[in-house]
Specification:
Helicase, Ruva Protein, domain 3, Ribosomal Protein S5, domain 2, four-stranded mixed beta sheet, alpha/beta, 510 residues, Rossmann fold, single chain, elongated, 20 helices, 14 strands
Length: 510
């Protein structure tokens, strides 16, 4: 007897429908699996056999052939265990309902334990979205109910064991489980407050500009100057994720297996801070079965690279294309995948290996060759892609002890949200994405004196075409923070100071 059920597999962050066909026929007892199964799927023969028996069902003493279609797509993971087990029971005539004729009613996914339990799985959200598009219900592990409930209009059938799954399929009219209520957005007031930062007026200003326009930021300065402190307060300046962004971010975290247990839709923007010993694959993603890396896990949020020159030069160079395009393309012999990677990059570094080059109070003991070698770990092409460079001096004790609190995160966020709203209304996206004709149109709308200032900046600072583009983007963001329709000379002058090789000093150099 032949039974057919629908399952799904996740490749990248998209789910691909997979048909699970099982034939129970006469012959020597045994299980044959076809359809490019990997080692995990092949091992399901033993897991499924034991789980079926421990669930109170007899395993058929006949020849069992399991086919996973499409045959040219490699099947990976334990999520096929449950549909294989149910298809075996249906093909053996042990389920009273003819599920082989109703394969479009359910998309079935989940692994099984030896006792017949169905544990939680990763990567369920893309499968749930694919199930809704196909018009079927979803039969899945009960521990993933909060994740599956994110998808509106999808009939949900959570189960905890093979027995429960069999009862759902045997019922002529199974009743779907209501989706749990989505969690309320996280109160951004609980995030770290910018008012805690004393001094560093220029660093706070750069943080505001970066948040308003989505611009990449490099913070340099001695140890303890507040680089990490500033970076960790950036997420509080950003708006909550919209529905589309939240679905994408949650799907990426689900596929990567880092979605917290019982979590529903992620509402806060990610903040990822990988250690400088991470590999290329850990940062941008990859592997024999491509999975998202830190770059994609930070999608729609902040990627913070502390101690930037301590990262491998080869690792850093992998960032160049993704931070330009907003995606990561990973090509392997068997398949190619694309992961979203639209991030706000914040990097921090010391001015030399010991950290005290140029310090008025502490002597730097690094040899000039050491300093040069240290700084060269950040290549020119990558540095050129960073819109804002800020040199943070050490904060004097008098400012720490008696200084007044600066503006709070809530006050700065109001200006950031207003500037972002202006950009979305005007061009449909942030200034950091402006290019080509749209950027030329924005730069053409400028007051007198802007073009000569840009020309002098290009000449004095040896700006590349990319550098000029990023200066114009930052200047447009500064104008938006001010609420100005025209890009004025002062906006360009402030943007140019963040491109100075010695840090944002007096723009009189230009």
């Amino acid at each position: 007897m032949l039974a057919r059920l629908s399952a799904a597999a996740v490749f990248g962050v998209e789910a691909v429908p997979v048909s699970v066909e099982v034939d129970v026929s006469s012959g020597l007892p045994g299980v044959t699996m076809v359809g490019l199964p990997d080692a995990t799927v092949r091992e399901s023969r033993d897991r499924v056999r034991t789980a079926i028996r421990n669930s109170g069902f007899p395993f058929p003493l006949a020849r069992v052939t399991v086919s996973l279609a499409p045959a040219d797509v490699r099947k990976v993971g334990a999520a096929f265990d449950l549909p294989i087990a149910l298809a075996v029971l249906a093909a053996a005539g042990l389920l009273p309902h003819r599920v082989d004729r109703d394969e479009r009613r359910f998309t079935i996914v989940g692994g099984v334990s030896l006792d017949g339990a169905v544990p939680a799985m990763r990567g369920l959200l893309p499968i749930a979205m694919a199930a809704r598009r196909s018009g079927s219900g979803l039969l899945f592990p009960a521990d993933n109910l909060s994740e599956a409930g994110i998808v509106e209009g999808l009939p949900l059938y959570p189960v905890r064991s093979i027995g429960e799954a069999a009862r759902v399929l045997a019922s002529p009219n199974p009743i779907p489980t209501p989706a749990p209520a989505l969690s309320a957005p996280v109160d951004t007031e609980t995030l770290e407050d910018l008012a805690d930062v004393r001094g560093q007026t220029l660093g706070r200003r750069a943080l505001e500009i970066a948040a308003a326009g989505g611009h990449h930021l490099l913070l340099t300065g001695p140890p303890g100057a507040g680089k990490t402190m500033l970076a960790r307060r950036l997420p509080g300046l950003l708006p909550p994720l919209n529905v589309g962004e939240a679905l994408t971010v949650t799907a990426i975290h689900s596929v990567a297996g880092v979605l917290p247990a019982g979590a529903g839709l992620l509402r806060t923007r990610p903040f990822r801070a990988p250690h400088h010993t991470c590999s290329e694959v850990a940062l941008v993603g990859g592997g024999s079965l491509p999975r998202p890396g830190e770059l994609s896990l930070a999608h729609a949020g902040v990627l913070f690279l502390d101690e930037l020159p301590e990262f491998s030069r080869r690792v850093l160079e992998t960032l160049r294309q993704p931070i330009e395009q907003g995606v990561v393309h990973i090509a392997r012999a068997s398949r190619s995948v694309t992961f979203p990677a639209r991030i706000l990059l914040v990097a921090a570094m010391n001015p030399c290996p010991c950290g005290f080059a140029g310090s008025p109070t502490t002597t730097c003991r690094c040899a000039p060759a050491e300093v040069d070698r240290y700084l060269r770990r950040l290549s020119g092409p990558l540095h050129d892609r960073l819109d804002l460079t800020v040199e943070l001096p050490a904060v004097p004790w008098r400012d720490l002890a008696g200084g007044h609190d600066g503006e709070s995160t809530a006050a700065v966020r109001e200006r950031v949200l207003a500037a972002r709203a202006r950009q979305v209304v005007r061009q449909g996206g942030l200034n950091s994405t402006l290019e080509g004709r749209a950027l030329r149109r924005m730069s053409a709308v400028a007051s007198a004196g802007v073009q000569p200032l840009i020309a002098r900046g290009v000449s004095r600072l040896s700006l590349s075409v990319r550098g000029v583009t990023r200066v114009l983007r930052v200047a447009r963001t500064i104008a938006d923070l001010e609420g100005a329709d025209l890009m004025a000379r002062r906006h360009v002058a402030e943007a140019l100071q963040f491109r100075l090789p010695d840090g944002p000093l007096s723009v009189a150099k230009v």
